[in-house]
Design goal:
Layout: E1 3-6, H1 13-23, E2 30-33, H2 44-53, E3 57-59, H3 63-73, H4 77-96, H5 100-111, E4 116-122, H6 128-135, E5 140-146, H7 152-162, H8 185-193, H9 197-202, H10 205-208, E6 223-226, E7 255-257, E8 269-271, E9 284-289, E10 294-299
Parallel strand pairs: 1-2, 2-3, 5-6, 6-8
Antiparallel strand pairs: 1-9, 4-5, 7-8, 9-10
Helix pairs in contact: 1-2, 3-4, 7-8
Length: 304
């Protein structure tokens, strides 16, 4: 079984479909979709339908799904205006075109989407097994999945209080392990549940602008995977980027962030928003396989 992740298709169903076809997840594989399926692009309902049709899809809520729900529950015209200013008009037209029972079913499904997940996978990147042997541990990597990012200071404080390493709040203990390296998946889930929903859906500069402190000098610890911030704009907020956030022709692309000597060369954050929201000509949808971090892209074509 392999684990794939994608995010921020923003109504560009054809690009999402092509990217998934290129990646080719099997029926036994898991595909994580980190939210922002709706708004901006021409066919948000098509994206919702496609994502729901995927076998073993695990879907998280994005800030645009949250705005959709807030608008539907509000009688304040300002909420409607804010949503429409943020690309909600395409979603509104798509939902209005549906039979009432299908529209209600889609909205009910969106309303129950979780805000995060934690997954542990085999690390099959080159050199991972050898490095694990030197450290005397398994070649496994844990990922914290959410739409926008996390409050890293609150995360470290929670894990320090939980006693997951010998630390009392510092980034790493004397043995070179991060405050998170000893945390199991259940503890990391509890930590993520303690995070502010607003941060998980909306955080940006505070998350991308500083190391999380969750990956230690031995390279162990969880990596946060998030969308929300288009990669072509990431350099406004992030330091220590493993690339510019744009590929040939200024297409958006996935970016690893935070790899330094203090993390044994391991990135502690990965941006998976490939700027589909910008549409043609710079927008793309990307799919990453977490085991080896291989990536497949599909450009948003003109008229899509």
């Amino acid at each position: 079984m392999a684990t794939y992740v994608t995010s921020d298709a923003h109504g560009h169903v054809r690009a999402l479909d092509r990217a998934l076809e290129l990646a080719g997840p099997g029926s036994g594989d898991v595909v994580y979709v980190l939210g922002d399926m709706v708004d901006r692009g021409p066919d948000p309902v098509g994206v919702l339908r496609l994502v729901r049709s995927l076998p073993n899809a695990r879907v998280l809520m994005g800030n645009h799904e949250r705005m959709l729900l807030d608008t539907l529950m509000s009688e304040d015209e300002r909420e409607v205006f804010i949503w429409e200013m943020n690309g909600g008009s395409t979603t509104a037209r798509g939902l209005d075109s549906l039979a009432s029972d299908e529209a209600a079913d889609l909205i009910d499904w969106i309303a129950q989407l979780p805000l995060f997940d934690v997954v542990e996978v085999d690390d099959r990147r080159p050199g991972a097994a050898a490095r694990a042997g030197v450290l005397g541990c398994d070649a496994r990597r844990t990922y914290l999945l959410t739409h926008a990012g996390i409050d890293a200071l609150a995360a470290r404080a929670y894990l320090a209080m939980a006693g997951t390493a010998g630390s009392t709040g510092a980034f790493a203990d004397a043995a070179g392990s991060s405050v998170a390296s000893g945390a199991d998946v259940a503890t990391l889930r509890d930590m993520m549940a303690s995070q502010s929903a607003d941060d998980l859906l909306w955080i940006r500069s505070e998350f991308w602008g500083a190391p999380t402190g969750l990956v230690g000098p031995d390279g162990r610890g969880p990596v946060v995977v998030a969308g929300h911030t288009p990669s072509i704009l990431l350099r406004r907020y992030a330091t220590l980027m493993g690339g510019t956030g744009a590929h040939e022709g200024m297409y958006g692309c996935m970016v690893e962030v935070g790899a330094t000597a203090s993390t044994f060369g391991e990135a502690d954050r990965i941006c998976v928003d490939c700027a589909a929201a910008t549409g043609y000509p710079s927008g793309r949808v990307g799919v990453m396989r977490l085991e080896d971090r291989r990536v497949w892209y599909a450009e948003v074509r003109e008229g899509e």
